[in-house]
Amino acid sequence: MTDNTAKRAVVPPAPTAQDLADAAASQAEPSTQPKNFMSLFRLDGKVGVVTGGARGLGYSMAEGLCSVGLEAIIILDVSTELGLDAAKRLHETYKVKSQFYKTDVRDEVSVNEIMNQIAADFGHIDIVVNSAGVADLVHAEEYPLEKFRRVIDINLNGSFIVTQAASRHMISQGTGGSIVFIASMSGHIVNWPQPQSAYNASKAGVRHLMKSLAAEWAVHKIRCNSISPGYMDTALNRAYKGLFNEWKERTPMGRLGDVDELTAACIYLASDASSFCTGTDMLIDGGYTII
Ligand SMILES: NC(=O)c1ccc[n+]([C@@H]2O[C@H](COP(=O)([O-])OP(=O)(O)OC[C@H]3O[C@@H](n4cnc5c(N)ncnc54)[C@H](O)[C@@H]3O)[C@@H](O)[C@H]2O)c1
After folding, report:
1. Of the candidates 169, 159, 263, 170, the residue with the CA atom closest to the CA atom of residue 211
2. Ligand 1: distance of its center to the CA of 236 in Å?
3. Does residue 264 have a pLDDT over 70?
4. Is residue 280 included in any domain, yes or no?
5. Is residue 81 part of a domain?
6. C-alpha of residue 180 to centroid of ligand 1, in Å
7. Count of domains observed in the chain
8. Containing domain of residue 247, as a range?
9. pLDDT tens-digit map of 177-209
10. Which atom of ligand 1 is nearest to the CA of 105?
11. Is 203 a catalytic residue?
């Protein structure tokens, strides 16, 4: 017979007066020197890689990292024209070193070669932002498997391939790093009315992948976190402008997010400002998922 007796919560013995006095005495005196908490957000000397950084949210996040002192920004994207432009503009605007690699995040061999090249050129890789992603709207019963697989392959497997390749350098450097995944509120709830089963499943996978890697790599000082945006006004969504009014009505703030409205969160997660933060997902959705 199995013993199904549930365990009670354990209440520790009440602290004695001496315990309370010792605890108070062990607390460091508050410093009278002003602390500069804003300096924790600086990324001086760091090398950052942003996938899908040629445009949209990825580009804005690349800009954000550059704006707080990043030494070098590397854009990985399938779009050569936009990617080259992005790297050039970041270099000219923020005076950072910049590099563009035409990359399909699904291509394990090429991603590994590129990460090796980045480490050889710049000496280290400190930050990765996984923003490359695609969406399509197809009714589930009609979804061609090849199309379904493509979304999972880019959004989920691609994030893993890039992160794994970068992590090998972060581990061998011994200095750790910060990985920021761009998941989605679609990984928390199912968006409506558009049919997007592959996208929703891929983003739920990204969040759980992030948490799994955070647990495994804390020992290597690699922090993994994600941002889950709501509806943002980017090219990815402008293809479905007919749904904008419905999306706005379903969002308590009554609007879509601006392309720059995730960037401060990305700086926070990439920097020492979030030094005790790993395995966390930040939902930034104008209140959509409150309801
Ligand atoms: N826009 C939104 O409302 C929204 C909401 C939640 C999550 N997201 C996620 O944020 C990320 C960025 O979205 P966005 O709106 O900026 O999209 P976007 O389409 O403007 O940008 C995506 C970028 O990824 C690149 N890309 C696509 N496939 C690639 C591949 N196989 N390899 C390398 N690069 C590839 C594209 O060329 C493009 O530059 C995506 O992961 C998306 O799923 C967006």
Report:
1. 159
2. 7
3. yes
4. yes
5. yes
6. 14
7. 1
8. 48-290
9. 999 999 999 999 998 899 999 999 999 999 999
10. 32
11. yes
